[in-house]
Amino acid sequence: MKRSVFSSVIGVCLLVSAGCGVASSADQDSVDAKIKVCTRTDGSCMESNCDELNQPYQGPGSMFGMQHSDWGTSTYKVVGFRPPTDLEVQNTGDKRWIVRGYFVSAGVHSFAEGRVVAASVSGSPVTLVDMQATRSQLVIRVDDGNGQTLVLADKALIDLRLTLTIASPLRRGEQTFEWSFAGPPSDLAKSWTMDDPIRGYPVQWETKGGPGVMPLCAGDAGTPQRAVFLQGQSWDPQSFALSGSLDDRTVSVTCELGAIASCHSWGYAPWTSATMSVNGEPANMVAIEQTCIRMKTADYCGIGRVHTQFGTQIVVNTPIEKVRHQSVQPRLEALWNEHGALCVIDANRRHQNMYFACDASIPQCDQDFIDKFSPYVMSSGLP
User: Terminus of the chain with fewer CB atoms < 10 Å: N or C?
Assistant: First the structure.
């Protein structure tokens, strides 16, 4: 066996959407539906927004990011903000916050950073001092220029405008974008809350000469969806590798139907707590969070290759207390840890017509394997 079981893991069984979105049963696609998936590693995906880590492909017009006429077919995915390091300030003299993101074209991600060059509150210029996401609540602090620090959260964010500059991937200088909030945050639907629901924010952007005000996260036909903010953690968009911690000052951005936000909404956020059902020991919620992301995207190989599509249903079982998901799984698909699938039953894979890139390296789930490991790890099955 080539994969290790994570030492601390998480079991209410629900039918849940595995294709990076939470949807009602009426909205689900069958496993026989036409597949629209981004394979990432071979550049075959022609829609930059089908990276299911942040935003699933939901139909024409769905996307995550910003576009500019000078960028050709590229989209810029804003995945976070961070303050400059002391060394960066020393070398450049620039103390302005940095925009983190990726240009995406034909499925290829290229990391690129920009700057928050200006900010205003109710039309008056201010200086961005700090951004923080306490669990999923975004708090932004600005200096009003008169020695006062304004703390903006919830409805107060509607008055804030952030001006971002992003250098063109085609070496055509910098482009300027204005970020704003279209309304107050609201709780994500069907969130497993532990008295602390995940919040989504209606973020929008516009640029000079562009198409007008556009949502950062858009669903089918460009329907606005909400952005979700989180502290410290970040993910590689191609390998899905997790880095950072909740103590880091980086604030990450994702969309409400992506794998990250969906797993948090399911109750697997890293700031939650749980104990292992099998022995009562503390569960490693960071490992469980990453396991959920691998499972939700059917990333069997643990390399960022998706083997599912938006709307596919699975049955989840995670053996922790407080219970999130727990059920008998007569059609077990796979056992999971933070590195991918520990074992797979080929006949029960969500989409058997999708190429299984690492089939030879992952064992089949026989009964001995299931009996040994299922009390400790997350599992998925077909309804």
Answer: N
